[in-house]
Amino acid sequence: WDETHFGKMGSYYINRTFFFDVHPPLGKMLIGLAGYLSGYDGTFPFQKPGDRYEQHSYIGMRGVRLCRLFCAFLGSCLVPFAYLTVLELSKSLPAALLTAFILIFDTGCITLSQYILLDPILMFFLMGAVLSMVKCNSCADRPFSVSWWLWLSLTGVNLAGAMGVKFVGLFVVLLVGLNTIYDLWDLLGNLSLSLVMFGKHLLARVLCLIMLPLALYTAMFAVHFAVLNRSGPGDGFFSSAFQSQLIGNNLHNVSIPE
Q1: Which residues cross the membrane (predicted)?
Q2: CA 75 and chain centroid, separation
């Protein structure tokens, strides 16, 4: 059922048809982009679960060859992400290998990753945020280095990605936020660190973990509204003034009082 739901929204993006959904737009935009780049023309109706795709090119959005297909590829990335995270935290190769082994043979993870769903995209950004946070923590002894800035920025990018797919991404924002508070509290208690240097640490985290994710999250909606410029099933949720901007709507370019 969910594949029918989100596959249809991918088609909406390809056809530039406006729609309304409870989730933020990033996951569905990426699904639509994958379909567009792989030759899918957005004509499959996605009317009910189990419909055969037949001649429609759906390979870019869904498939079982994990290294080549979008959702499956993101799902397969969870294995190295988990491996690197556990290796960084435990410094134990057997523990990291065991984690990777468990994920490789996890039936739920394999199943979620082979359909047109938001879940593999969400999990990719969630685990990417955790990995980036852990890597940034490991660079604590060399703050403001290139690697420190890289991992801190990637943490912010992945936070925006997680929030941009589903609001449940707030949980990883909470995790990173608590880790940042602990880190800053520890720095504040370091008497050898000047207040100016502490201010630089605080500013860096505000820029990378607050301002950067907010800017990217806002940009997702800017792209969303720029792409979906044709009338569709989501018109009625918005004002008449907004509907007048949609091509094909009854109110398009109609002069109406503000």
Answers
A1: 66-86, 92-109, 149-182, 202-227
A2: 13
